[in-house]
Design brief:
It is a single chain. This protein has 376 residues and is α+β, with helices and mostly antiparallel strands. It has 3 domains: 103 residues, Acyl-CoA dehydrogenase/oxidase, N-terminal domain (Butyryl-Coa Dehydrogenase, subunit A, domain 1), CATH 1.10.540.10; 102 residues, Butyryl-CoA Dehydrogenase, subunit A, domain 2; 150 residues, Up-down Bundle (Butyryl-CoA Dehydrogenase, subunit A, domain 3). It contains 10 helices and 10 strands. A 4-stranded mixed beta sheet has the order 1-4-5-8, with helices on one face. A 4-stranded antiparallel beta sheet has the order 2-3-7-6, with no helix packed on it. It has a two-stranded antiparallel sheet with strand order 9-10. It is globular and about 80 Å long. The protein starts with 7 loop residues before the first helix and ends in a 6-residue tail after the last helix. Bound molecules: flavin-adenine dinucleotide (FAD).
Length: 376
């Protein structure tokens, strides 16, 4: 059965059950890239969720991509984050890359990602300090990127630098991962999302043709804010919601399943425990509802779209840490073991708040909007 806009979630459910869920514990334990999971998603055409049908994509837009990332996150946060960054990179390629690159990204033959964060400007991804200089008929790139998901597995990076010569904060480039002068400082050994291969990458005298520029010189900031930030925030929120959904389900099943034999009762018979599960449910539903409203704002171009885009990531990221904190409380000692997977979700949820735009930066932006101040 060919994957289509009508049946993609059916395909995804099968892939999650057959490949992504069974691999998740190992991916986490070994910090291993989820190669088999990405291959299964590729085989089903799901790497092309945000790509246009004319290059072989599914054209599912924000809503479809969010549904996919959320469903995958229920089983494996690392795979969900690899997908999230591929979709964000692909959205830029869709707008600014050559047709062959777009076709390859849609087919999943080209794994995309963003190389924005730098050691110099840290989470302030909109202000790269890495440089691009005209050099003997081409362009020379130098930078210290601090985090790149799929750093050693991607086909090419969507790369930010200071502009070549135009005014502006940045310019974007398509940089092959194998380019001479690129060094991936892996392997990634993190607290959570351990399989997402999120390593530092340096560029020393990397040469690319000027045609590798994505968009116009000096227009990187506009692309980051107009194309990447809305999609990244939505997908990051979807990832957090998927992790929460899995945690609520697993916690409720645990509470309903374990018994106090001497009292002939279950953990869920304790009102305190049900109270905590209810709070987990409410926080998850609040984040999901806000994400749904954000998607409606995006679909209709509503005036408050940017506010919602900022809110949905802050809300879901923070809710996820709270929900997983409650999950650990409800599951008690069992949450310390690997078999419930609660401890994996607990670790995976910690990433959302520090992934740029970080929760604190989002609070600052949202506060500025509320107070009628410009964002930058
Ligand atoms: C799993 C994972 C995957 C990632 N993948 C990618 C990727 O593919 N591509 C990419 O480009 N980056 C990626 N990143 C990097 C990420 O987007 C952030 O840039 C990075 O996590 C920020 O860490 P830092 O220590 O450099 O932040 P810092 O800037 O040092 O921030 C430290 C703290 O200060 C706070 N802070 C900073 N500025 C302000 C402010 N103005 N107001 C209030 N508080 C502020 C932050 O919120 C944070 O809590 C990834 C990060 C993680 C954890």
């Amino acid at each position: 059965m060919t994957t289509s806009a009508e049946n993609y979630l059916q395909h995804l459910d099968r892939i999650c059950a057959e490949t992504i869920a069974p691999q998740a514990a190992e991916v986490d334990r070994d910090g291993a890239f989820p190669t088999a999971s990405i291959a299964a998603l590729r085989a089903a055409g799901l790497m092309g969720a945000v790509s246009a049908p004319d290059v072989g994509g599914l054209g599912l837009g924000f809503r479809g991509a969010a549904a996919i990332v959320r469903r995958v996150a229920e089983d494996c946060g690392s795979t969900a984050m690899v997908l999230c960054m591929h979709y964000c990179g692909t959205a830029i390629l869709e707008a600014h890359a050559a047709k062959e690159v777009r076709q390859a990204a849609a087919a999943g033959d080209h794994l995309s990602t963003l190389a924005f964060s730098e050691a110099g400007s840290r989470s302030h991804f909109w202000a790269p300090v890495g440089t691009a200089l005209r050099n003997g008929g081409g362009v020379r790139l130098d930078a210290r990127k601090s985090w790149v998901t799929s750093a050693s597995k991607a086909t090419a990076y969507v790369w930010s630098s200071k502009p070549l010569q135009a005014e502006g904060l940045s310019t974007l480039w398509l940089v092959p991962t194998g380019a001479e002068g690129i060094t991936v400082h892996g392997p990634f050994d993190g607290l959570g999302l351990r399989g997402n291969d999120s390593s530092a990458v340096s560029a020393e005298r990397v040469r690319v043709p000027e045609s590798a520029m994505l968009g116009a010189d000096g227009k990187g900031f506009d692309i980051m804010m107009g194309v990447v930030l809305p999609l990244f925030n939505v997908l990051n929120a979807a990832c957090a919601i998927g992790l929460m959904e899995a945690a609520v389900r697993g916690t409720a099943e645990h509470a309903a399943g374990v018994r106090y034999e001497h009292l002939d009762s279950r953990l869920a018979d304790l009102p305190t425990i049900r109270n905590y599960v209810a709070r987990m449910r409410i926080k998850t539903d609040m984040a999901r509802t806000l994400l749904d409203d954000t998607l409606s704002a995006v679909d209709t171009g509503r005036a408050d779209m940017m506010l919602r885009v900022l809110e949905c990531k802050a809300s879901a990221g923070e809710a996820a840490t709270e929900v997983l904190d409650l999950a650990v409380r409800v599951c008690g000692g069992a949450a310390f073991r690997k078999d419930l997977a609660v401890e994996r979700y607990f670790r995976d949820t910690r990433a959302a708040g520090v992934m740029a735009p970080t929760t604190d930066v989002l609070y600052d932006f949202i506060g500025k909007i509320a107070c009628g101040m410009p964002l930058f």
